[in-house]
Design a protein that fits this description.
Length: 824
């Protein structure tokens, strides 16, 4: 019989089969069962080896007794047919208090460690109390059961590591001696306190019913197994020839484990190893490295590789990372890559080791070498543009729209302040203009008074510039987004052309208005020149008194114009709320699994406080509130006061508004888009921590449907132990279902808690040469056990192994179990 190191196919199990020994204890008169004797074990093995069943691990578990002759007879058939392992076991009857504190007997199947010592297995039945007639001597005679205290003592006296399985005969139909017969609360209590390790169900009416049964317990992920409860080997896998029900209701569990007691323990302590029926735990179609082939000191060494998670452990500088780089041929770029490759070549030459296996680019999903995860987390955390995560951000913030709207709002704020400052400046100058009241006789000579002012063109220039800019942007859409336009259909391109044409017409109107104003100003200029010439000739012909009267009249005209200007400026004053209405900040959200890829601004929100903060970057702290009040309400600020309030780059008083707009535009241009990844658990509006991005990163890797082998060197870098335990392990467990994973690690959680499918331990032998030991966690041989290597090699490994296997004494060389306390 071969001795596999890793699981290549699941083990199908049945730990609930009775033999003739049960007739002596509880099933008196059962003739079919009485025929199930040691000399007929071949019948049972043949039935179990039926291709529809292919039972690989089993146990004879008779009622409250152990027939060592029966055990030896069936044990001798290991390697025959499908059978690979026979474990010793007993179905005990134990009286536990139910919800009403009434002693209620339930059946508990105890599976013992077959590794012995042999004398303990031989003496197993002697530790079960018996009467003089050889029947079980129960201390609760009324219920024909052992008390929980006596049961615990029996297990301690037997002295073998044990797995206890509580019996449930049928899903959804509570029956006598089932765990559920104790009542919901007490049944939940014995599971929660780990008085039993798992529950066993006889028939599988459907898997949903079974999941519902185990999910009613408070303890999460209660392990369950299926068993035949067979009392007639000729009817196997039915419980008896008189079984009431369909044969297809009978089923068995597949365990992802080696066919050993240790494999059973590992399955019970990680229920993800247990599935119903002929299940697959790995993706058979995924690319896979079948073996890691090395040559060490001239000797070939072939290490079988699991299709799931393979973990490489060992001391520092033993060559773990080197194997990943040589397998892929990836070393990075530049001088550092050259030195790395040369260093590995020198190491292999010195240690006389050669890696023969290779992973081609077509087989590779991704390689995260040592330190690269730090860069990946930074890309996630900072939303680095051009990173490999860009494809997840499908919805984006329209920065141009946001910036444009905000700049227009801030320009309105500056204009509002300028409207009042200009009025204050003008009124200050007007107050300094004093015209004394004079009385002059009217002259009969002609006088030329007043002047024609040029029409303003600045507003039309701004209008035309804005329309021309928009027209050019709309026209550029046709060139820059031709692929999208083609998908939108011919109407889209026509609408775009129509929009450009409409803007051209609007621009033509603006240009026409500009031409009219320029022509009008030219006419006004001609009139002004003629008037000035005439005024000069008249002044030469008039007396000084007449010129004085004309000058005074002109002063009055100017004063009247200034008063009119003051009235106009006063009416032109406006207030502008600092809160920017109409600036729509649309956040882009792209769901990916249970995550959301969020595109947002690098500022939390655009509101009144944000706009004031922008002003705070321009003006000194003390005058800032006065500036804000000047924008939103009345103020006595003047150009000189505003210009002197600038904290840096103080402008001339006549240019404060232009400088204020320039600095505000520059501040708005600093707004950028950034990406973050979150979900409802984190909080859609919350900012994940850098450590949490580690969990998210591996969630993304697990959710990626791309085929190929994933290699990662020290995934524990930059991630807390808590995050590894609570989140990252789950992501890797999900990943192994779709692809092969090869991990180099110093963290025991990635070995034991991740439930690695294959552990490759690099070390040195007594002569100092590189040595390789490998196998599933439960694998052990005469030279080593993998769990022992993990406990001794990985820092903290012993504690992690102890916590997982605390109930089973798996690392106790005496293999004596810890005594189960009476929790009930």
């Amino acid at each position: 019989m071969d001795d596999p190191k890793i699981v290549t196919r699941p083990a199908r199990v049945d730990f609930h089969i009775h033999s003739a020994a049960s007739v002596r204890t509880r099933d008196a008169g059962n003739e079919a069962l009485a025929r199930c004797t040691p000399d007929r074990v071949e019948t049972l093995v043949e039935k179990m080896s039926d291709p529809k069943l292919s039972i690989n691990m089993c146990a004879i578990t008779d009622h409250d007794c152990f027939d060592v002759e029966m055990y030896r007879a069936l044990k001798s058939k290991e390697g025959h047919g499908a059978l690979r392992k026979v474990l010793p076991g007993v179905e005990f009857t134990v009286a536990l208090p139910d919800d009403m504190d009434r002693p209620t007997p339930i059946h508990v199947v105890a599976i013992f460690d077959d590794r012995g010592p042999d004398d303990l297995i031989e003496a197993l039945d002697s530790h079960i109390p018996k009467t003089a007639g050889g029947r079980p001597e129960y201390d609760n005679k009324d219920k024909s059961a052992f008390s929980s205290q006596r049961f615990s003592q029996i297990l301690s006296d037997i002295g073998l590591s044990t797995v206890l399985i509580g019996h449930e005969k049928s899903v959804g139909r509570e029956q006598r001696n089932d765990v559920s017969s104790l009542g919901a609360e007490r049944a939940d209590e014995i599971v929660l306190t780990e008085f039993i390790d798992a529950v066993e169900i006889r028939n599988r009416r459907n898997e949903v019913d079974m999941r519902n049964l185990v999910e009613r317990y408070t303890k999460p992920d209660v392990p369950f197994v299926l068993g035949s409860d067979c009392h007639d080997w000729d009817a196997y896998p039915l419980s008896s020839a008189g079984f009431r029900g369909r044969e297809d209701e009978v089923g068995f569990c597949s365990l992802k484990c080696l066919p050993t007691f240790e494999g059973l323990v590992m399955s019970i302590t990680d229920p993800s190893r247990i599935k119903v029926g002929n299940a697959s735990f790995f993706n058979p179609a995924a690319p896979k490295l079948d073996s890691l082939d090395l040559v060490i000191d001239g000797e070939p060494c072939s290490i079988p590789m699991s299709a799931g998670v393979n973990v490489v452990i060992g001391d520092n500088s033993i060559g773990k990372s080197m194997i990943l780089h040589v397998l892929t041929g990836l070393y990075g770029d530049g001088e550092d890559a050259r030195r790395l490759k040369e260093g590995y070549s020198e190491y292999c030459r010195r240690e006389k080791i050669e890696v023969k296996s290779r992973i081609s680019p077509s087989q590779l999903f991704w390689f995260d070498d040592q330190g690269s995860i730090r860069g990946a987390l930074e890309e996630l955390h900072e939303g680095t543009e051009g990173s490999r995560f860009d494809r997840y951000f499908q919805e984006h913030v329209n920065l141009d729209v946001v910036k444009g709207a905000l700049k227009r709002h801030l320009e309105s704020c500056v204009d509002a302040l300028a409207s009042k400052v200009e009025y204050n400046d003008f009124m200050g100058r007007l107050k300094e203009t004093i015209i004394p009241l004079e009385v002059h006789e009217v002259s009969d000579r002609m006088a030329v008074a007043g002047s024609l002012r040029a029409k303003q063109t600045k507003d039309v220039e701004g209008f035309n510039g804005a329309v021309e800019s928009v027209r050019d942007q709309v026209a550029a859409i046709k060139t820059n987004h031709r692929a999208v336009l083609s998908k939108l259909g011919p109407d889209a391109e026509k609408d775009l052309d129509d929009a450009v044409e409409a803007l051209n017409r609007l621009l033509a109107l603006g240009q026409g208005e500009m031409a009219c104003r320029k022509f009008d100003n030219e006419k006004r200029g001609v009139v002004r020149r003629i008037a000035n010439e005439l005024k000069g000739r008249l002044q030469q012909e008039k007396t000084d008194e007449e010129n004085s009267r004309d000058a005074y009249r002109e002063q009055l005209d100017v004063a009247a114009a200034q008063v009119a200007r003051a009235v106009a400026l006063r009416l032109h004053r406006k207030a502008q709320p600092m809160n920017p209405e109409g600036v729509n900040v649309r956040i882009g959200r792209t769901p990916v699994g249970d995550l959301e890829f969020v595109s947002e601004l690098n500022i939390k929100q655009i509101d009144r406080d944000y706009c004031i903060s922008l002003l705070g970057g321009i003006f000194n702290k003390t005058p800032l509130p006065i500036i804000v009040r000047g924008i939103e309400g009345e103020t006595d600020l003047t150009s000189e006061k505003v210009a002197s309030s600038f904290s840096v780059n103080k402008p001339p008083s006549e240019r404060w508004a232009q400088e204020m707009k320039r600095q505000l535009d520059a501040a708005v241009d600093l707004i950028s888009e950034r990406g973050k990844i979150t979900n409802e658990k984190i909080g859609l509006d919350s900012e994940p921590s850098a450590g949490l991005y580690g969990r998210i990163y591996f969630d993304l890797m697990a959710g990626d449907e791309k085929q190929g082998i994933y290699l990662v060197d020290q995934p524990e870098d930059q991630i807390s132990q808590t995050a590894i335990r609570n989140d990252v392990i789950r992501a890797f467990s999900k990943m192994r279902q779709k692809r092969q994973v090869i991990i180099v690690t110093h963290n025991p959680q990635f070995v034991v808690n991740l439930d690695a499918d294959n552990v490759i331990a690099l070390g040195r032998d007594g002569a100092g040469r590189i040595s390789v030991r490998s196998g599933a966690l439960e694998y052990e041989c005469a030279d080593y056990s993998i769990l022992g290597i993990v406990a001794d090699t990985v820092e903290g490994g012993a504690d992690v192994v102890r916590r997982r296997l605390k109930r089973y004494g798996a690392q106790d060389t005496s293999r004596r179990p810890q005594q189960r306390e009476n929790h009930i």
